[in-house]
Amino acid sequence: MKEIQMAEITAASVKELRERTGAGMMDCKKALAENNGEMEASIDWLRAKGLAAAAKKAGRTAAEGLVGVVVEGTRGAAVEVNSETDFVAKNEIFQDFVRNVAKLVLTTGTDVETLAGAAYPEGGTVQEKLTDNIAKIGENQSLRRAAIMEVSQGAVVSYVHNQVAPGLGKIGVLVALESAASADTLTQLGKQIAMHVAAAHPQALSAEELSAELVERERGIAMEKAKESGKPQNIIEKMVEGGLAKFRKDNALLSQLFVMDNKTPVADVVASAAKDAGSPITLKGFVRFQLGEGIEKKESDFAAEVAAAAGTNKAEPVA
Predict the structure, then answer these.
(1) Strand positions, DSSP E, 52-107
(2) Buried-exposed string 58-94: b where 16+ CB fall within 10 A, e elsewhere
């Protein structure tokens, strides 16, 4: 049975695992063999063995397209539209579509099906326009997700990393600040926090808001690491709880160390800005869309495509 599993492991899957974890080739091959080729399970296996960096697991993505963000008044929206290649992201027709859809999210809401059926500014529906774009550009495209941030008083501030056009890029961030402070103060603070969110990739606003599933997954990894130490069970339990405490701190925005100085918790940065402004400031929430995040996409190359067209094996298995 082990030989069958090994035969299904391709060079492409080993390459993807190496890129996502930073682990060595042989370790990646072993991880995939031990986990029936399952990518996420292999990542956890490598982390449990201390062979992968946790921060890298979501750092490399394969899907293309654009993330678009827009802010109007005290509301902001983000949308992700995927395509097959990065060439489409440079197409003005595609860029206009993403920009218009981001604006529509503010009126239609975040449900993708509702958004697809909404009236498009140039006529027809969003889905009809998307279908027309597919025909014109010659490449499949799809609406993936949308989000809204809003405050009753204050500011929603946007930031785009790897921007290809105003409001469009690879990573889009929205930060919501509830406050009576001046617009200039909130814009400056919001921009800095949005840049931090883009770089530090927090999983939730606070430790309490981290998903139970995410915490339990991390608990399992921490337990496997601790067991390998050979220490008594009571010590293992303390090691696990210590690891989880650090995980919560490192993955909640308010407790993360601000990337601008790498020493001040974000919560303290907000408190300091509020003190200087003479008005309370509440970091209400954030949205971070990274293009293709969580999407598994098979890699291909010209040689593989030619081999496939010739009827030969497209991907050589890793022995």
Answers:
(1) 64-72, 75-83
(2) eeebebbbbbbbbbeebbbbbbbbbbbeeebbebeeb
| In the chain, domain spans | 1-61+296-319, 64-181+283-290
CATH C-level class of 1-61+296-319: mainly alpha
Query: To which residue do tokens 């979501």 refer?
Result: 58
For residue 297, the model assigns a pLDDT of 53
- Tokens representing 45 are 């296996």
Q: How do residues 182-193 score in pLDDT, each as one tens digit?
A: 999 999 999 999
Separation CA 187–CA 156 (nearest Å): 8
Kindly report the pTM of this predicted structure.
0.73
Give the pLDDT band of residue 312 (cuts 50, 70, 90): very low
Q: DSSP letters of 15-55?
A: HHHHHHH---HHHHHHHHHHTTT-HHHHHHHHHHTT-S-GG
CATH superfamily of the domain spanning 64-181+283-290? Elongation factor Ts, dimerisation domain (3.30.479.20)
Tokens at 11, concatenated: 């060079």
Q: How sure is the predictor about 5, in pLDDT bands with cuts at 50, 70 and 90?
A: very low
